[in-house]
Amino acid sequence: MVIRRIFYMVAVICVCAGVACAGELLSEEATNYYNEGVRSQVRYDTVAADTAYSKVLLIAPRDMNLRKAVKNNIGVLRARAEEIDAAEENLLQSLEIDPLYKPALLNAGLLYEMKNERLKSLQYWATVYNLRELKPKDFILKEDAQIPREGGNVLLPMYQQVIPFNYKDPEFQKFILNNMGVIYIKRNDLSAAELLFKQALQLDPDYKPALLNLGLLYDGRRDKARALESWARAFDLELDKPQKYVMKDVSEGIPHPLEKGKDVAYHYAPAKDPDYQDYCMNNMGIVYANRQDLAKAEAMLEEIIRKSPKYRPALLNLGLVYDIRKDRVTALTHWAKVFDFESRKPRKYVMLDMITEGDFPYEYAPVDDPSYQKFIINNMGVILVTRKELDKAKEMCMDALTIDPSYRPARLNLGLVYDLQDERLLALELWFEAFNLNKLKPQTFLVAPEQKYIEKN
C-alpha cells in the first residue's frame, strides 16, 4: 500500500510538471507569434499581422500581458482600415485588462479625435499625462516663475503663494477689490469702480486706499459732498474735529488780553490789531452760537474768514455751526481747510501693494503695467468664485488672458471655473494648453512593441 501511494504521488507530480512545461512552451510560442505580428504590422502586412495575432489569442487566452498588447495592435489595424467601431471595441478590451495601459490610452484618444468626440479624447490623454496630479487643487493667485520639468516633457507646476494672504481672507480681498476698481477707472468704467471700492469698504469700513479712491472718483464727478465725506473718513476727521467751540488756537500763540498777576489795574486790549479782532469776533461768534442764534454766529465767523481765510478757530467753529444746521458739505469744506485735505489727498488713484502697504506717503502700483493688471484681474476672478459668481469670474479670467494669452494662473483658474460649471471639455482644453500637453500627444497610432519571452524558474 505504501509503495502504491508513493507511485501515485510521483505520477501526479509528473503530470503537473508536464502541464507547467506545456504552459511555458505555449507562452513562448505565443510570444513568438506576437512578435511576428508586430513585425508584419510595421511592414503594413495586415493579413500576416492579423493571422499572427489570432494565433496568440488562441494559444494563450489567459496571458493578459500579451492579450492587452494584441488587442491594442488589432485596434490600430482596424483604425488604419477605417473600421472605427471594430477599432474602438479592441482598444476598449485592451483597457479593460489594464486601464492604465499607455499605448491603448493614447490610441483611444486619437480614435475619439477622429470621431470628433473631443471630450473622450482628452479624457484618455488626461489619464496618460496624469492631469489629475498636474491640475491645481485650488484657485491660483500667483505662480512661481520656476517650473521644473519631468523627463524634459510634462510641466509640473509649483503653485507657490507668494502673497501672505489666501484668497478667502478679507485682507486679501479688500486689496484686490480696491486695485480692480482702479483698473476700471483706467477703463473709464466709473460705475464698476465705485461698486468695487464700496465692496472693499464693506469688508473694512476704514480701509484707507478705498476711501481715498472713492473720494477721488466723487471729486471727478464734481460730487463734492461725497468726496469730502470719503476723505473725512480716510483722515479720521471725526477724531480730529473739535467737540465744542474753540475760543483760542493755542498753536498760534495769541495772548489773552487780560494778563493775570500784574499790579496794574487795567490792561487795554489792542483793539486795532487784526489778530486781536479775529480773536474777539471768534469768541463773540461762540457766544451767539451758545445762545442758539446760529445766524449771527455764522455771520460773525464768516466775516473773520473773509479777512483771514486761514484763521483756524473760526474755520473749526464755523464747521461746527454748519454741522449743527445739518449742512454737512459746508461743514466738511471748512474742516478740510483746517486739516489741509488738498495737500493730504492723493493726486492719483492708490493701488497699495499688500507687502508694502502703509500710511503716507502713498504707494502707487503700476496700474498701466500689463503684468500687474493681469495679476489683479486674475485674482478678482478668484474672489468672484468665492461669491459663487462663476460667470463673472469666468469673464475676469478671460480678461486676464486677453492681456496675456499665455498667462498660466488665469488659464488654470478658468479651467477650474469651467469644471465647476460641468463644462468638462472646456476645462480639459485649457489645462492641456496650460501644461503644453497638446505637444505630447501622438500624431499617429501606436503599435505595442515586441516582447521578450522570459522563462519562469
The stretches of 5 or more residues where confidence is low (pLDDT under 50) are 1-25, 144-165, 250-269, 353-363
Number of strands: 2
**Count of individual helical segments:** 21
The CATH architecture of the domain at 2-129 would be Alpha Horseshoe
Strand numbers in spatial order across the main sheet = 1-2
Protein described:
This protein is mostly helical and 457 residues long. Among the domains are: 128 residues, Tetratricopeptide repeat domain (Serine Threonine Protein Phosphatase 5, Tetratricopeptide repeat, Alpha Horseshoe), CATH 1.25.40.10; 100 residues, Serine Threonine Protein Phosphatase 5, Tetratricopeptide repeat (Alpha Horseshoe), CATH 1.25.40. 63% of the residues lie in helices and 1% in strands. Strands 1-2 form a two-stranded antiparallel sheet. The two termini are 34 Å apart.
